[in-house]
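FAQ: What does the model actually see?

It sees only this:
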Amino acid sequence: MKNVTHSFVFLAHWPFAGSFGLNTDILATNLINLTVVVGVLIFFGKGVCASCLKDLLDNRKQRILSTIRNSEELRRGTLEQLEKARIRLQKVELEADEYRMNGYSEIEREKENLINATSISLEQLEKSKNETLYFEKQRAMNQVRQRVFQQAVQGALGTLNNCLNTELHFRTIRANIGILGAIEWKR
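And it is asked to produce this:
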């Protein structure tokens, strides 16, 4: 306390003109600063009443609370949207998995169908090839038979022409005519 009193006494003894000094006494310096601040507040705050200041503070408090409420509502709305987006993402992922599985199943079905169709086509081609080979073989055999028959007929005609004379010719013709006549008579 002695120091505080001493500080006020020290202030009273300042020279009016002259040098400027640095006060190193912390208590005296704080007291001076507080006195200046209180004086400025009293001087400029004369027109401000306590209820006006209270109203200003209440308005400020209401704006802060309103901003906090708005922020909370926005936060809740954002969280709801985030949850909806997560649910939608899960649905989309499930649908994508389903499409992927259906796609794989469809690919497998198409693969099996293609294999079956190719197998059937190969069987039909094999059958067609075998039939073609059989018909070609039959045709070749018929051609060979025809040639053999023609050669045999030509050989027989040549032999007959060499061996037969006119009388034998007439007897053979008459015998054949008789056979044909007997066949017609039976009918």
